[in-house]
Design goal:
CATH architecture of the largest domain: Alpha-Beta Complex
Strand content: 15-25%
CATH topology of the largest domain: 2-enoyl-CoA Hydratase, Chain A, domain 1
Structural class: alpha+beta
Radius of gyration: 30 Å
């Protein structure tokens, strides 16, 4: 009896504790206070969303809430871990896939109406009879003009599954009645190589706009075309190429490197080092090569340029690249949305990580980096380039730097000759683009008689498009400045005529026109003339 009395206080205490716990549970349960659930473990976020959905005073769209919350979480990691909503995921996939299903037109929206700017050659729209210059005023029997006409809505109505049909109502220049065309949607190629031609009798040129699924086979086709024209030197233009698939850049680099040359390697917290060496099967291992880059060249572009530079395989010309050395893995959710999560960093063969500095959770300085570079004069003087990382060495001992992009072997400043406030305002306001399209639309029958860039550009020079633009701009709110117009005449003519050429011909014609007086192209040609494309071993000091 005495023994049981000894344990009685302990038994009573346990009973009291159990009673308090049961009472607290029921009190919280019936009062709606379930924060104790949220505070348990790693499921707090999902539990919070459940509580909001279940208990919040007003009805809440949880999907919309998630679309807001996830980007905020990822923004605290790094500048390149991003969330892509389900409605945007398809467009993102199309950009890299190399094709999508649609009608095959390039359009612009003016005065709340779709204007057909270009028609894809041998595409569905061309086969149906749609012409550049047509205005689309209805889709599937419903009017499509006015404020409802946006880029997003136009893409939604014109894109669709392969072999489905869409009926387009079209107003054509010189005709009063609406014409109707039934277009059967088909695969529309998204080319990542937009120009392939000869700069001179010896030098081939390839413009790589992005790195997608089809970049490497497109590259082989481009090289085969240049081979037929007898090229002995090659320029690969990666300016303003923001990247894409790392594997495409590796495949492309492999084409120019001998066996067992490191192209790139990656390292992550959960990803051990992975090397990507060349296999020696490339067909252009010894061709003199120049690679063009600028501040808009990023990611996969930097992999290729870094591999060529560190292996002393090519001369890099231009301005310092963007500095994106983070590797993303794409992870999809059941609803079709996805995230691109940074899982590793990539390193060039010399060992440099070219990712420029950033502060996790504070992307302001990172996003304004290019503006900062511009203000510090980096676009105009090589001496203004600030390297944040240590020095490394290429295979023959040349010094290269990490921590902020690929620094070119030969610097080419941004051309500001003739730059005026009038030109800047004309370009930034969109007036040049508007005028170029208006001019194209009003003169299409005459312009159609010129089938190549050279003849069309010669004709445009004779038309004094700058004077016509100045009158158009003055009528549309940009006051005429005769002294500034004379000073910027060459820049204005180049911009205006290039857009008309683009409207009438294609990307390649536009690129060829722009390159005709491009200082980086001129420098590349001089490198070949001096037999200096292969870097030289630095002299011993």
């Amino acid at each position: 009896m005495k023994k049981s009395n000894r344990f009685m206080p302990l038994i009573m205490a346990v009973c009291v504790i159990i009673g308090i716990m049961i009472g607290s549970f029921y009190a919280n349960h019936f009062s709606g206070n379930r924060l104790n659930i949220i505070n348990s473990g790693s499921n707090r976020l999902s539990n919070l969303l459940h509580l909001i959905d279940d208990q919040y005073v007003d009805k809440v769209n949880i999907d919309s809430l998630v679309d807001v919350a996830i980007p905020q979480i990822l923004a605290d990691l790094d500048p390149h871990s991003v969330y892509i909503s389900a409605k945007d995921a398809q467009a993102v996939a199309d950009d890299l896939k190399g094709s999508f299903s649609g009608v095959g037109i390039e359009f612009t929206i003016r005065k709340d109406t779709i204007h057909v700017q270009n028609v894809v050659k041998n595409g569905p729209a061309q086969r149906a009879g749609i012409l550049a210059g047509d205005k689309i005023v209805s889709v599937d029997g419903k009017p499509f003009v006015g404020k409802i006409v946006t880029n997003e809505e136009a893409m939604r109505r014109l894109k669709g599954p392969k072999d489905t049909k869409v009926k387009l109502g079209v107003m054509r220049y010189g005709q009063k009645a609406v014409k109707y065309f039934t277009v059967t949607r088909g695969d529309i190629p998204q080319k990542s190589i937009t120009a392939t031609y000869m700069l001179d009798k010896n030098t081939g040129y390839i413009k790589v706009k992005s790195f997608g699924e089809t970049t490497y086979p497109e590259m082989l086709i481009a090289l085969a075309k240049l081979s037929q024209e007898g090229f002995t030197n090659l320029v690969i233009d990666l300016r303003d190429n923001t990247g894409g698939y790392m594997n495409s850049a590796i495949q492309m680099a492999n084409e120019f490197l001998p066996k067992d040359k490191l192209i790139v390697y990656t390292i992550g917290r959960k990803s051990p080092r992975q090397d990507f060496p060349s296999d020696g099967h490339g067909s252009y291992q010894k061709i003199p090569l120049v690679v063009l880059i600028n501040e808009g060249s990023a990611s996969a572009s930097e992999i290729f340029a870094g591999a060529m530079q560190d292996n002393d395989r090519a001369t890099i010309i231009g301005r310092r690249s963007f500095g994106k050395g983070l590797v993303q893995q794409q992870l999809s959710f059941p609803d079709g949305s996805m995230i691109r999560l940074t899982i590793a960093r990539y390193y060039t063969p010399s060992g440099r990580c070219i990712q420029k500095p950033f502060t996790a959770g504070d992307n302001k300085d990172y996003e304004e980096d290019l503006l900062t570079r511009y203000q510090h004069g980096e676009f105009f003087s090589q001496d203004s380039i600030k390297h944040h990382g240590p020095a490394y060495h290429t295979s023959i001992g040349r010094t290269v730097y990490g921590g902020g992009g690929i620094t070119p072997d030969i610097f080419v400043a941004e051309d500001t000759l003739g730059m005026t406030s009038y030109y800047k305002q004309a370009a930034m306001s969109g007036l040049i683009l508007q005028y170029a399209f208006t001019y194209t639309d009003n003169n299409r029958p005459k312009l159609n008689t010129y089938k190549d860039m050279m003849s069309l550009s010669k004709y445009l020079v004779s038309q004094n498009t700058v004077e016509q633009f100045a009158a158009y701009a003055d009528h549309n709110g940009l006051k005429r400045r005769n002294l500034m117009i004379r000073k910027s005449h060459k820049l204005l003519e180049r911009f205006i005529n290039s857009r008309i050429i683009y409207n009438m011909l294609d990307d390649e014609a536009w690129t060829e026109y722009i390159n005709a007086d491009d200082p980086a192209i001129a420098k590349a040609l001089s490198v070949f003339r001096e037999n200096a494309a292969f870097p030289k071993k630095p002299a011993k000091k």
